[in-house]
Design a protein that fits this description.
Layout (H helix, E strand, L loop, with lengths): L7 E4 L6 H11 L6 E6 L5 E6 L2 E6 L2 E8 L9 H9 L1 E6 L5 H6 L10 H5 L3 E2 L8 E2 L4 E13 L7 E14 L3 E2 L2 E2 L1 H4 L2 E3 L5 E3 L12
Antiparallel strand pairs: 1-10, 2-3, 2-6, 4-5, 5-10, 6-9, 7-8, 9-10, 11-12, 13-14
Length: 212
């Protein structure tokens, strides 16, 4: 079966105002989002893995962060972190209701030579500014270059590295984007809960910010 890739908009940070970049970030990064991170080793081996410690950082420059813990099985660095250390590039793909199952499949501890895209039945889509591929089935892809790494803890199980990346290209499916805003109802994002639980974002309410 051949995947039909929807039309997307490519938005470059230098073409947007700080306000617009901020609105894009808060539209892309909804409560308890999942960073579905694609990377590539120096030798060209792709990797894909989800991370739930994920958030926005700033709009000028437009930056996001996620935290990579050490593997609990052996205390070693995960492939995601090693790849970013080698190349300084990654892509964050937003997880929606339609790709929860393949996203979960990639959370297994595959050896470095296994392509998680293939293992989960997902499609690699070329990026425009970085080498790691995007997830074609995801409606939002954020191409990132490494801004800073912050080690937390002494290393090994329980410790982590905070990865801060600068977004160099936004890819947004056309049907979820209008007038500089993300339509979260069409996006259908999924949030991470405790244990093996996830939750869709179906109900929302609006609270106006007070003016003093």
């Amino acid at each position: 079966m051949t995947l039909t890739v929807p039309n997307t908009l490519t938005l470059l940070p230098e073409d947007l105002s700080n306000h617009d970049k901020y609105k894009l970030l808060i539209g892309c990064i909804v409560p308890r989002p999942i960073a579905f991170v694609s990377t590539m080793s120096r030798a060209g081996a792709p990797n894909l893995a989800p991370y739930s410690f994920f958030n926005g950082v700033s709009s000028d420059p437009p930056c996001v962060m996620f935290s990579v813990t050490y593997r609990s099985s052996d205390g070693q660095k995960k492939d995601t972190l090693r790849n970013i250390e080698e190349t300084g590039e990654f892509v964050i793909n937003v997880v929606t209701e339609t790709i929860v199952a393949p996203m979960n499949q990639t959370s297994a501890e595959y050896p470095p030579h296994i392509n998680e895209f293939e293992a989960a039945g997902l499609t690699m889509l070329p990026s425009t500014k970085v080498r790691p591929p995007r997830v074609a089935e995801s409606p939002i892809n954020l191409e990132c270059e490494l801004y800073k790494m912050i080690p937390v803890g002494p290393g090994g199980p329980g410790s982590a590295t905070i990865v801060v990346g600068e977004i160099v290209a936004f890819h947004i499916r056309e049907d979820i984007y209008a007038n500089g805003r993300i339509d979260f109802e069409k996006l259908q994002p999924v949030s991470r809960l405790a244990g093996s639980f996830y939750a869709p974002v179906h109900d929302a309410f609006e609270v106006a910010r007070p003016v003093i």
